Amino acid sequence: MERSSQIIRTSLIGIGANLFLAAFKAAIGVLSNSIAITMDAVNNLSDAMSSLITILGTKLAAKQPDRKHPLGYGRVEDLSATVISVIVLYAGVTSLIESVKKIIHPETADYAAVSLVIIAVAVLVKIGLGLYVQKMGKKTDSDALIASGKDAMFDAVISASTLAAALIYLCSEISLEAWLGAAISLLIVKSGVEMLRDTISKILGERVDKDLALGIKSAISAFPEVLGTYDLIIHNYGPNLQVGSVHIELPTDMTVAQLAALEYRIEAEVFDKYRVVLTGISVYAVDPDNPEGQKIHRDIRDIVESYPEIASMHGFYIDLKEKELRFDIVLRLGAGSRERQKEIYADIRRRVEERCPGYHIQINVDYDISD
User: Is the pTM higher than 0.90?
Assistant: First the structure.
């Protein structure tokens, strides 16, 4: 079964289960005058709405690319996850307001045995639903399903807490309903904030996964012609499309025909292993048989690596005859203020000019965007 169909089927199961639980909990909450159970029902209703949005997001994300969006609509899944986060956050805030009202103006709850049995059943249903949805989320690589599954497990804990409060009241006549409702609401708010933070982070663009970055660089560096792999950038356009670019170091004596053939092999290898489309491979030319140039290279590397704010240096090129020299330095993330970065750049340039007087020097500043 294709990915979108699996996500939709799983979401439909979630909708059915949550609507069933919401209806029963709402009825029990009203009959027993229990704010905690009623708020738990509201949470189930928001979960059902979340599953519906997951379905709509999956449908839109599966649309074919068009002229306006040539890379497809895969990022709609991140947008739908953002909407789900806002719904969860809203449900938490509104339930917190109601709980605080009950704390200020308390009412006595009235539990029936059937109510407690249904709550216990709801706990079991939520555990089963949570495990199933998380499993399908991992299988389909769907963040929305994984989040829904975790939320369902979280709901099971909340329902179990509600059941415990009811038992405490029946045994000791100590009512914790309003306070428990407030605690549940705060947990829902916390969950909504965390979900919103994660989805916004993805939309903004996150650092390339370390294992993926190192794997791709290792695969490219395994080609005997490649002397180094740098500046890997990957843009995520949804679970089915990742587009990237990379810089590689190659010997200066390679022909254009050899370069074209190598780039084709690299693109095929990376796509077959990691399903990442490399749309750009830039080249740094390196002359490994130039002893004088290699000596200058080592001296400049020693200069650059003396600064803790510099992560690495690459792209070194020198033309002894034309007296041209260029290389890239990679600043670590959080490498001081802009003023400090300017100081580092100026100091490196001054020291390189002293080492190579009369050279036309070009130093490019890169940032630590991937491992």
Answer: no
